[in-house]
């Protein structure tokens, strides 16, 4: 690998970069037709030159998209170090054995496993921690040909552990089809229920039936914004109505004329094996934002006649619930920015008189669950986590000792059994699956995740603080080799997100070592809009305050320069999905700050977001153009609306999956066309398309490695790194 000092060979790098850029300019990317459409929002006219690209089925749009993909492939394949980098990333990503997504049913454990060398995780189970591993579902065997892949989306075992409902989809589309496998025979049953994307399955105590979520069937006149909206909850009995079409609806918008269910993405029912009650959830965006909750005795569920009682609306701040007997435990943000846990009886549900079990404290409660013996909760405490065991009445609590500082996630319990399993990992510490036994008062490594072969003592991580424009301190986690010096020579990959209250908690990514080997730095910035400091931190980067998210990100990058880690010519910005809003700020607020922008499946044209399939559920987070304040919030942070002609923009790569159900591909198409037409820098602007992928969820290991290799080799080329410079084309 090329050492850091190669970045000091500035004169050589600039000369090579100039010649390679000029060579690429000879044959530029295909030019998109300009067809302006003007919308006026509350007196502000906004021109959209590429509105027609929103029709992804248009043959002209498809031809241009494929031509862009071919051009990008040609450019990237000409980078000398790209193939070797891809091999290195794939080797790092596939070297360790991974097990995660654990679910416990008594002593039986269900989980996903990915062996070294595998391309996709498989569904497995074992009868105790030390038991033999059995494979239930192998998605690699379900693909119809080598050009497409199938991925496991979700799974849910029955309470007795005999059956597992699971969803699979093709090409990263997340368009799940529900199946059921019988462990007693190892065979898949006849059930095949489509339109179950992101499904929540809750088994009844008979272990022969379950509640599940299903989206309405879209017709030829269904607008894109309604294709995955207002999912309804049905009840299914094994062996009956194999396709689900005759299953009885029990909850959802329009199911009962006497029940007002708000619009939203999904509805589902939650159960517990020891509770005679059912809780129904109307979830606006299939997340843990405050939602609407209902309750009913299980015995009274009767299709559209079910007498659901509403117990919480979004303004009540309830974000997660658990049933136990005749009581409901719930996590709330109302009056508690760092969250609290409360409890109330379900025969007399009244939020106003709910008992506080775990009050708001100095730490941020991240998650909780109920085991047979206690409440277990993970708390975010600065840069690391704490795990707490709290008695069910809240009177006794104790901190559980952890072997190292990191993130505690995926609390795994069986509500009928004592103790908890959980995942622990850090920036330089690979995941461990630990189990706490209340009898021994100790958390031990289960060995379910073997020690990683990729951990390195040569890499370290620490937190520093940037100062944003308004004086707010922004945590920045810096991951680098221990021998990195502050001489301004290091390629720095700045990563951020800042939406939905989701935090960038420490996680282990072995593939980063391929970047660090070039003297690189990875800087993860904890910008407003995330949840690092609770709900107040989230709201400080939402709607009309969303501009804070963008400015915090740029301030974090500037901090790296001020602290002599790097310089602008070595700065790379990277974010995905809602992080596309952040990439817009990196591109446009100060076009000279970053040298390279890597925008993955980015949300770029926020003014048009409501028209796409995943648009309406996101209105509570980002706002709506139907209101004046909503428009101004969206317009101020719309990357697409603020591209200016004649601006010397950085080098940019926009990536998308052709099957993306979350951020429509036209975001990246429109953004690529607009920046290609506007930039005056001569630096490349590429559109990368994966036709066997969606939002990245469900992509295979090789797909992920190829994308990283494309992006990082592109960045290293643009920064002048020797070994990544294409040969200049000979003059005619």
Automatic annotation (TrEMBL):
Catalytic activity: Hydrolysis of Pro-|-Xaa >> Ala-|-Xaa in oligopeptides
Xref: Gene3D superfamilies: alpha/beta hydrolase, Prolyl oligopeptidase, N-terminal domain
Domain of life: Bacteria
InterPro entries: AB_hydrolase_fold (IPR029058), Pept_S9A_N (IPR023302), Peptidase_S9_cat (IPR001375), Peptidase_S9A (IPR002470), Prolyl_oligopep/macrocyclase (IPR051167)
EC number: 3.4.21.26
Keyword field: Hydrolase, Protease, Serine protease, Signal
Protein name according to UniProt: prolyl oligopeptidase
Provenance organism: Paraburkholderia phenazinium
Origin organism lineage: Bacteria, Pseudomonadati, Pseudomonadota, Betaproteobacteria, Burkholderiales
């Amino acid at each position: 690998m090329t050492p850091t000092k190669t970045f000091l060979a500035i004169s050589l790098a600039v000369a090579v970069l100039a010649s390679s850029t000029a060579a690429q300019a000879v044959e530029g990317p295909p030019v998109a037709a300009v067809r302006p459409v003007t919308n006026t929002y509350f007196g502000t006219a906004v021109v959209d030159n590429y509105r027609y690209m929103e029709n992804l089925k248009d043959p002209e749009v498809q031809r241009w998209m494929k031509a862009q993909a071919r051009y990008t492939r040609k450019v990237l394949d000409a980078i000398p170090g790209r193939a070797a980098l891809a091999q290195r990333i794939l080797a790092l990503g596939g070297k360790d054995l991974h097990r995660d997504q654990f679910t416990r049913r008594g002593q039986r454990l269900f989980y996903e496993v990915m062996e070294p060398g595998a391309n996709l995780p498989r569904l497995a189970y074992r009868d105790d921690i030390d038991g033999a591993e059995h494979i239930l579902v192998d998605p690699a065997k379900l693909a119809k040909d080598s050009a497409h892949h199938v991925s496991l989306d979700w799974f849910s075992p029955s309470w007795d552990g005999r059956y597992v409902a699971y969803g699979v989809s093709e090409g990263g589309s997340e368009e799940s089809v529900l199946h059921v496998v019988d462990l007693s025979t190892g065979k898949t049953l006849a059930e095949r229920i489509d339109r179950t994307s992101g499904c929540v399955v809750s088994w009844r105590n008979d272990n022969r039936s379950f509640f599940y979520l299903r989206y309405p069937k879209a017709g030829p006149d269904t607008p894109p914004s309604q294709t995955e909206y207002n999912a309804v909850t049905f009840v299914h009995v094994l062996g009956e109505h194999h396709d689900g079409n005759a299953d009885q609806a029990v909850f959802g918008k329009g199911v009962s004329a006497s029940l007002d269910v708000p619009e939203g993405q999904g509805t589902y029912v939650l159960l517990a094996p020891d509770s005679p009650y059912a809780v129904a959830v109307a979830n606006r965006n299939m997340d843990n934002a405050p939602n609407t909750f209902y309750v009913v005795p299980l015995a009274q569920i009767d299709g559209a006649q079910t007498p659901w009682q509403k117990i919480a609306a979004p303004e009540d701040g309830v974000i997660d619930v658990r049933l136990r007997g005749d009581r409901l435990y719930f996590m709330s943000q109302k009056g508690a920015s760092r969250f609290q846990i409360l409890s109330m009886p379900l025969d007399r549900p009244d939020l106003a008189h709910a008992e506080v079990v775990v009050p708001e404290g100095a730490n941020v409660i991240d998650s909780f669950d109920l085991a047979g013996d206690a409440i277990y909760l993970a708390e975010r405490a600065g840069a690391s986590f704490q795990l707490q065991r709290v008695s069910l009445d809240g009177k006794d609590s104790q901190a559980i000792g952890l072997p190292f500082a990191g993130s505690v996630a995926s609390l795994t319990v069986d509500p009928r059994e004592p103790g908890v399993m959980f995942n622990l990992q850090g920036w330089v510490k690979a995941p461990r699956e630990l189990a706490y036994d209340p009898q021994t008062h100790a958390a031990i490594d289960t060995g379910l995740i073997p020690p990683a072969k990729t951990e390195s003592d040569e890499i370290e991580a620490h937190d520093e603080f940037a100062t944003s424009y308004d004086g707010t301190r922004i945590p920045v986690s810096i991951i680098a080799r221990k021998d990195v010096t502050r001489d301004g020579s290091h390629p720095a990959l700045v990563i951020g997100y800042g939406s939905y209250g989701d935090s960038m908690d420490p996680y282990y990514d072995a593939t980063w070592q391929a970047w660090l080997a070039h003297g690189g730095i990875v800087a993860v910035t904890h910008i407003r809009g995330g949840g690092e400091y609770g709900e107040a931190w989230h709201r400080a980067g939402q709607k009309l305050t969303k501009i804070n998210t963008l400015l915090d990100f740029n301030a974090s990058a500037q901090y790296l320069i001020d602290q002599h880690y790097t310089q602008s010519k070595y700065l790379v910005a990277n974010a995905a999905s809602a992080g596309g809003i952040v990439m817009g700020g990196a591109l446009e607020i100060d076009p000279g700050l970053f040298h390279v922008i890597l925008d993955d499946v980015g949300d770029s044209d926020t003014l048009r977001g409501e028209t796409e399939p995943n648009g309406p559920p996101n209105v509570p987070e980002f706002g709506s153009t139907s209101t004046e304040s909503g428009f101004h919030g969206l317009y101020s942070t719309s990357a697409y609306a603020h591209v200016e002609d004649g601006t010397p923009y950085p080098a940019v790569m926009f990536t998308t999956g052709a099957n993306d159900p979350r951020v429509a591909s036209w975001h990246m198409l429109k953004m690529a066309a607009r920046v290609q037409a506007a930039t005056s820098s001569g630096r490349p602007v590429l559109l990368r398309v994966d036709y066997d992928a969606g939002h990245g969820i469900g992509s295979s290991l090789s797909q992920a490695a190829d994308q990283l290799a494309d992006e990082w080799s592109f960045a290293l080329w643009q920064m002048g790194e020797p070994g990544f410079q294409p040969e200049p084309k000979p003059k005619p």
